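Technical note accompanying the year-one report. For the benefit of new consortium partners, we illustrate the data format agreed upon in the data management plan: each record pairs a sequence with a structure-token string. No post-processing was applied to the example shown here.
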Amino acid sequence: MRWLSVPGAMPAMRGVGGRRHRRGRAAAPVGALDWPATLRVKGPSALVADHLRHRARPSERGLLQCVLLDCSASMRAGQRLALAKGLLVALFEHAYLQRSEVALICFDGNGAALRVPPSRVPGGVAGAVARWLQPIGGGGGTPLAAAAALAAQTLRRAALRRPAQLRELWVFTDARTAVLPPRPAAADAAFIVDFEQGTLRLGRAARLAERWQAQCIDADALREALTSRMRDGA
């Protein structure tokens, strides 16, 4: 699974003899997905591949994407954790291509742990992610507050190390918790990827996103958008 750019327009040009031909335009460097722009284009409709928009490639500022991965017992139901791991690989593959930094915090019934401190993604992304996640089986409760506190500490240290760096916070969760902690102050942007499934939904991920002034993205819709993009070969 890979994050891919939206193809740019190819303006029609009139050539010798009045024939029309297309002249390629040098593509602007493509950076991380621009979720605010993507969701503005999406509007109230379901997310599809054509909605995806990208920022220009980060300059000297750089980008850190810190992911909080919910490994609680509820995430094991319905293959939610497997889906989360697949999307995590996709996100980190994109970070590898963009030479961005990533950090990974996993949380379950045993608490929260920093599995990957802020650093560049090594080559062989899928293998690296598999090694990072190998000890993770998932289980217990959802200590989101502990994970958010650890993220706040991690991002604060990252801000001291690289003050100009753009810091994104991603939360992969079904939000099966009654505790909605405050948003880490050092996060410049936040995204809640909602893994809640079934007909009876509590909507806590959306409430967390509202409290954090974050974008809430449905995990299945995100998977379908990325799968469609790969299938179309765009």
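Partners are asked to follow this layout when depositing records. The chain has seven helices and ten strands.
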